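Amino Acid Chain and Its Fold in Token Form
===========================================
Scope: a single protein chain, as residues and as a discrete description of its fold.
Amino acid sequence: labelled as such and written in the usual single-letter residue code.
Position: the record begins directly beneath this header, with no further notes in between.
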Amino acid sequence: MTTALDTRRAPVADRPLTGYRPYWAKRFGTAPFLPMSRAEMEALGWDSCDIVIISGDAYVDHPSFGMAVIGRTLEAQGFRVGIIAQPDWQSAEPFKALGRPNLFFGVTAGNMDSMINRYTADRKIRSDDAYTPGGQGGKRPDRAALVYAQRCKEAWNDVPIVMGGIEASLRRIAHYDYWQDKVRRSMLVDAKCDLLLYGNAERAIIEIAHRLAAREPVERITDVRGTAFMRRTADPTAQGWFEIDSTEVDRPGRIDSHINPYQTTSEQAAEQGSSCAKEDGANPIGAAVQPIRFVPSVSGKVNLPPRERTVIRLPSYEQVKSDAVLYAHANRVLHLETNPGNARALVQRHGDRDVWLNPPPIPLTTAEMDHVFDLPYARSPHPSYADETGGHDGPTKIPAWEMIRFSVNIMRGCFGGCTFCSITEHEGRIIQSRSEDSVIREIEEIRDKVKGFTGVISDLGGPTANMYRIGCKSPEIEAACRKPSCVYPGICANLNTDHGPLIHMYRRARALRGVKKILIGSGLRYDLAVKSPEYIKELVTHHVGGYLKIAPEHTEDGPLSKMMKPGMGSYDRFKQLFDKFSAEAGKKQYLIPYFIAAHPGTRDEDMMNLAMWLKKNGFRADQVQTFYPSPMATATAMYHSGMNPLKGISRLTDGPGARAEKVDIVRGEKRRRLHKAFLRYHDANNWPLLREALKAMGRADLIGNGKHHLVPSFQPATDGSYQSARRKNSTSTGTKTSPVTKGRILTQHTGLPPRKTK
């Protein structure tokens, strides 16, 4: 039987996306839409598909939809790609609609995690799905990627299955599952797919496709960055690999079999009366499988094993599922190994099999980003949806497409590192930007080809609006850095904060013929923006449509430190500039701050103080978002373990020498409702709960009918509805409702489309 490393090689140098010889089927040319039926295949002259993509989203041929990007990217390599969108998963028959793929099935749950797509933060089923025609819910199963992979295996057992997308990406190792309240195995194990791609997958999927087309067995493809695979457990050192136990990466001291404390190497040396100058994770002194000793050379430098031949063994699934401390440790180590410049391979045992994670993919260059976004997208939903949506002027009733129909994605990635967010885990923290010319070409294409365009571009952005072409000043420092954020606790001195290229793009875009307005709809990183007052002036003067959303997430230092978000000082500085430039432009414009309730590290007093800030500033949120523990996020590790991985992991949380930090976790329906109620302090339905809580907190002084009170002492004589309570409260307190809050949503910033979540 083939073992884990019989054929495994060190990751090879990455080839440019356009550096491959096209596959022979390129002679068929470009399809107007990737086919979704045999009839469409026949019209294109195809007898079969080389690759069939299974997606949980409706097929929209637009560069904001993952299946379209991957499909068009593979088509540009010469492969014939078909799409089966939102198939009925009750049997394998719908997965045979396009016949047997010659190379592989590509499986994705879609642009959103299927569980987050279907369930609210309170685990209630949503009634809608923005990625389905008509917004209809229930068109994809729970854990869709897992179910789809199993059905593909039933359809053709001998066809390789390559899984990707954000759902698989966030489940590539053993992960805490909020919906079942337990640690689940890597999706690789449950789905039994051959390869799992994490992060942005163009580079990996192209290499895999060409190697499979060259008849290389899928089990031999083990050296592609950004991929994970599963093999029977074997000894890596027997194959020339250096295996390091993960506890060496996080610099623990001695490992005690009973209390298992985690201690830094320097702390251990200090206890022994000596000193240590070892770098973080740079001098492993042991290995789980075979002891490895590193002896200083004549020059005094430590000879380290090559990173491309080093693998770090995380605690096994069986260990982390029953030990929250080890789970938090594994999560911390995984986040330490996310920089493509210095990350090492990871391995985690699941029973008698190992799940291997190769280092993250090399970010795309600007030329490669242009190649991906310049592909011949139809920029509309597949024509087959016309009948379902009324057939008027094309299919226009897929809500997610309506949202991004006239928007342009200018970059990928985020170096903010917010612990609750999935962007960094999926796209990485190195910004990948398109060229200005490529962005301008797309705006012109929208103007000339997209029906219904009125001259307004709804967004020029990405995960964050103002990180375009911003990154580390030094490639050498960037490649060696292990910090989880470039802007926390403050903006790194090595970060280039020049907004000049973005300002120039804005000016050029709004000068285009037929373009009346360029709006910025993506979330703004305001602590970065204040470094460039010229950018704020440009933004406020020309690109704000009355409201601008930003995400302080909280006002109190406790929860902000667990989120890795800046304090309110940055918000205040940004607001001063925003108000100043709005006044100079003669415009009345407002900021919409987004906040999260019940985030790990949030005390009841913190939410009370946030509510007082909201009232003082005249904000009334119609709907709010509570913390949603997405798989693999650092904040989710906090939620599950009650510890702060940002501070180091140890079983010693109290007393002398304790390193670990306990985190206040908001659990239970009543306490989560209380934290949401503080954000909706103005809703009469929440007043009884808030009065009870304020009395228990010793803050009954905040109950009354004056301006300085949070909730009134009376309860409306009507049915307690929001509208009647709001009118009575506004009259009695004299508080004015800012127009910024009418109909607006304060929501969690997750890197996913905003949800109207109750």
User: Anything to note?
Assistant: The chain is about 30% helix and 10% strand. Residues 48 and 99 are 7 Å apart (CA to CA). The domain at 24-233+352-357 is CATH 3.40.50.2300 (Rossmann fold). The first helix runs from residue 38 to 43.
